[in-house]
Amino acid sequence: MKDSGSTFLGWRLLLGFALAIGIAWAGEARAGQALVFTSATNAGVSFTGNGSSATFAFSNNGSTQGFQVTQTVGYNDAVGLFGTIGGTFKFGSPITSTGTPSGTVESAKVTGTNGDLTITDGSNQQFSTTLTAVGIASLGTAIAFDVKLTDAVYSGTNASLIALRTIIDDHNQGAQAAIALPFVPGLTLNDLLSGTHQTGYSGTLSPVPEPSSLALAGLSTAAMVGYTMRRRRTGRGS
Hints:
This protein is α+β, with helices and mostly antiparallel strands. It has helices at residues 4-20, 159-170, 189-192, 211-237; strands at 34-39, 44-48, 55-59, 67-73, 82-91, 96-100, 103-120, 126-139, 142-153, 175-180, 197-199, 202-207. The protein has one domain (4-237). It contains four helices and twelve strands, in the order αβββββββββαβαββα. A hairpin with an 8-residue loop joins strand 4 (67-73) and strand 5 (82-91). Helix 1 packs across helix 4.
């Protein structure tokens, strides 16, 4: 018997795949501000431990930079700014498998402590928001970590960050950040519960999307992520 809550989580995380590589989010520009970001040099995410004691966290480089904003929808004065993702996260059973036209999606709920996301503007003023983990999923070689952002604080003058703060404050559910974790070779969620695994990451921060309008984009994008990374791996081995 399928767990309807777990099935919904799988579909929500499929949307995360689309958001994380910047295809579906462009349609949300009318709602306000959206940011695309990628991990900074020598920064990334690490999975450590085994089974129920396994955790993962995002690390910064020697300049305390975790990620850099690379693209925006709406105001564009956030491009080039650096930020961080804080907190310690974990997932485990049950890991649910959901069949889709693009393959089998493995998904699990995630818990976390002290989660936050910060971005520092050009005047050294910090935007900060509480980060709450929603779930994690894998499809082929692609893994997506889905979070919600609430309680934004920012007193600077950067128009992109002001718009982002307004979006988070105006939505009862906050905003969504979908973060892609491109492990090569690909790993399943069960793989991540054993040993140590590290990778860079990229993602999109946007207003909460409507599942009815983005579900198909999420499915096709998830398949494309896996196909692209398999091609890259094959190319390096030839």
